[in-house]
């Protein structure tokens, strides 16, 4: 490895690490806010937040690695171009082909890491995360229900209030519910009050409050047919319980997805492969895309970089949807998505290598030769 290659790898590696770490921290901060909100609602045990954040960090690396490498290379090449170092390198015989080989020293390990995370690491970790959350939910069930605040279903049909905790349960419980179907003749609006209650959970992860020695008052406003029922026990579904992040993991192994004939499985393996392959393709595009006039500015080509990144991943999403609807096969989707951007890379290489000027000179020689 030459001195210039090592120098370029050091510059681009530092820029890639800085961009990737910044993007990862921003995304993790957003997820941390959501996790704290779920903890406040009782959907996630507080002691699981560090583990969940670690799992989410691995998941986010699938998205951070391609953009971090691409933007990091653009920044490094922009800095070298601004300080006329690329011009000096070209004068020393270190041209675009040498830069491309140097980029591959960095892009191939990043692509392999992204492929391992996408195809192997995250599907396995997602199953471990699901099992861990399910176990913590069954062991810490009493800690998942907020006390002293109203819990409302998104539909507004059910509201639950728990006044306080007691040994083995809760106290001062109030509930209000309306029929899910406004035209139902068998159900009426009602309120319930019970001095005590406790939590249970079914096999699907839904949580229920079991009211003990309570009273239900049921009827419709403006009507005379009100009913008062005293009961020993009654179960009420806790609002928002089904929206927790627990449950069965939907991640399948990449090997099973690859040989599956189900369109959704084919789309999922396409998306996983594309996440890894995009890192390599974008790294190659960065070399000709960053070429500009010396001292033209470090951030002059970043607009085009962000535009290409957005187009690339929107195209991946479109092809993913087409595979789901059996409009394209897996191989056709790979060819359309990544083949088009590989052709773009070759076109940019031709353009940055003064291809237009050479083509014009050949045209002039040909025209004068037949004049």
TrEMBL record:
PANTHER family cross-referenced by the UniProt entry: LIPOPOLYSACCHARIDE EXPORT SYSTEM PERMEASE PROTEIN LPTF, SLR0882 PROTEIN-RELATED
Topological relation to the membrane, as annotated: Multi-pass membrane protein
Membrane spanning stretches: 12-33, 53-78, 99-125, 269-290, 302-319, 331-352
Pfam family, one: LptF_LptG
Keywords: Cell inner membrane, Cell membrane, Membrane, Transmembrane, Transmembrane helix, Transport
Naturally occurring in which organism (per UniProt): Halothiobacillus diazotrophicus
GO aspect biological process, one term: transmembrane transport
Family: Belongs to the LptF/LptG family.
Function: Part of the ABC transporter complex LptBFG involved in the translocation of lipopolysaccharide (LPS) from the inner membrane to the outer membrane.
Subunit: Component of the lipopolysaccharide transport and assembly complex. The LptBFG transporter is composed of two ATP-binding proteins (LptB) and two transmembrane proteins (LptF and LptG).
Name of the protein: Lipopolysaccharide export system permease protein LptF
GO CC annotations on file: ATP-binding cassette (ABC) transporter complex
Subcellular location as annotated: Cell inner membrane
């Amino acid at each position: 490895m030459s001195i210039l290659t090592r120098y370029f790898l050091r510059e681009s590696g530092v820029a890639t690490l800085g961009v990737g770490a910044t993007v990862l921290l921003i995304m993790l901060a957003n997820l941390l806010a959501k996790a704290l909100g779920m903890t406040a609602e009782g959907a996630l045990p507080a002691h699981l937040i560090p583990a969940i954040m670690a799992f989410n960090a691995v998941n986010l690396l699938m998205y951070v690695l391609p953009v971090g490498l691409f933007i990091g290379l653009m920044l490094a090449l922009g800095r070298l171009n601004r300080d006329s170092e690329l011009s000096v390198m070209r004068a020393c015989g270190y041209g675009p082909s040498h830069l491309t080989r140097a980029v591959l020293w960095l892009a191939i390990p990043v692509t392999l890491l992204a492929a391992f995370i996408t195809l192997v690491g995250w599907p396995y970790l997602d199953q471990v995360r699901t099992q861990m959350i399910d176990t913590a939910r069954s062991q810490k069930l009493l800690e998942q229900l907020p006390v002293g605040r109203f819990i409302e279903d998104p539909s507004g049909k059910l509201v639950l209030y728990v006044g306080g905790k007691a040994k083995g349960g809760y106290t001062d419980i109030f509930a209000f519910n309306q029929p899910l179907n406004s035209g139902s003749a068998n159900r009426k609006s009602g309120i319930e009050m019970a001095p005590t209650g406790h939590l249970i959970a079914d096999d699907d992860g839904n949580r229920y409050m079991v009211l003990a020695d309570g009273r239900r008052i049921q009827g419709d406003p403006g009507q005379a047919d009100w009913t008062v029922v005293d009961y020993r026990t009654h179960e009420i579904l806790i609002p928002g319980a089904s929206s927790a992040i627990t449950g069965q993991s939907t991640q399948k192994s990449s090997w099973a997805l690859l040989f599956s004939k189900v369109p959704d499985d084919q789309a999922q393996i396409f998306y996983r492969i594309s996440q890894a392959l995009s890192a390599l393709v974008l790294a190659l595009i960065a070399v000709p895309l960053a070429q500009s006039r010396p001292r033209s500015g470090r951030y002059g080509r970043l607009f085009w970089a962000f535009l290409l990144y957005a187009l690339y991943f929107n195209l991946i999403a479109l092809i993913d949807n087409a595979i789901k609807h059996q409009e394209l096969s897996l191989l056709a989707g790979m060819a359309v998505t990544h083949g088009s951007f590989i052709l773009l890379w070759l076109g940019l290489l031709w353009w940055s290598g003064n291809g237009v000027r050479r083509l014009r000179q050949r045209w002039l020689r040909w025209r004068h030769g037949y004049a």
